[in-house]
Amino acid sequence: MSKRWLDWAIAAGVAASLVVAGHPTSAAGYALLAASGLALVARRRAPIAVLATTGLTALGYQALGIDVPVIAFLFAVYSTMRAGHRVVTVAGSVLMLAALPLAALISPRDLTTAEAFAQSRDVLQIAWLIAAAAAGEALRQAERRADEAERTREETALRRANEERLHIARELHDSLTHQISVIKLQAEVAVHLAQKRGEEVPEPLLAIRDAGREASRELRATLEALRHDQDALHGIDDVPDLVQRARSAGLDAELSIEGERNAVPAAVERTAYRIVQESLTNIARHAAAATAKISIDYRPDALVIRVDDDGRANPAVAPNPGVGLLGMRERVTALGGKLDAAPRSEGGFTVQAELPVAQP
Hints:
Elements: H1 2-22, H2 27-38, H3 47-63, H4 71-82, H5 86-105, H6 113-123, H7 126-196, H8 203-229, H9 239-248, E1 252-258, H10 266-287, E2 291-298, E3 302-309, H11 323-334, E4 338-343, E5 349-356
Parallel strand pairs: 1-2
Antiparallel strand pairs: 2-3, 3-5, 4-5
Helix pairs in contact: 1-2, 2-3, 3-4, 3-5, 4-7, 5-6, 7-8, 9-10, 10-11
């Protein structure tokens, strides 16, 4: 809102200055001078259109014999250069420098060619043009560097947070592995002794033994995932290896890649790889599926990953969001994407992630 008011203030001030300095004697002169200044209201939203408008109105009031500097055009040059339209700014400035003497020649004051060129130099000095363009380019570069510095700080903070999370996870893994190994060993010894004596093994003891085995497997898988997380090189090109390993394990996995392969940010590449990896791991552990279909769709503004299986998931039963699904959701949300994971009505389970690829 403050920028809008500033634009209106600048536009009104320039329009008033032009009208006062120009002393127009006709309604057309008033209109052209006022329109030239008021056009600056839209200089942030449509800089190229404002450049054209201020240039044409300046030529118009010069042709009417109103000899005032083309202040609004200089503001437009600054705004267009700041928006990054260098070629348009240079081309518009050159055309303006060439057209101003012609406008002066057709004015009612009956100027000679030399006088027309002298007047055009008075209303638009090349030094003014260069200063306006240089100011716009300097501010654009400063804003770009500030954005890059902010993005670098965010990436550094995210990397440090991830490193701290990995460190905490490893510490927990080391501590829990020891304790669970002790519980598992004691439970298995107790079961073995009871069976050796011919006694009936209590159900709670069998449950403790089985839970210890399952916990040990889960912890080993967690440690493997943590080790893989250190490798930042995994990306979409590594997905075929995941699919091949799934086939080697007995899963009929099929991979399809659609769309035109565009440049994808590294963070999106890693997240896509992890989604396919975690989905295939969940299928192998929990789905009891025979087939799986993995599709990667390159879209202009997003990368869509979809993994379908024909496992035993039941749409009538709400899925239990395990650590794998929660981890996927965290990764996708951190990138500003969307994750859907749910059983299908025809049977099986679907994981679909949409990851934006456009850079801010």
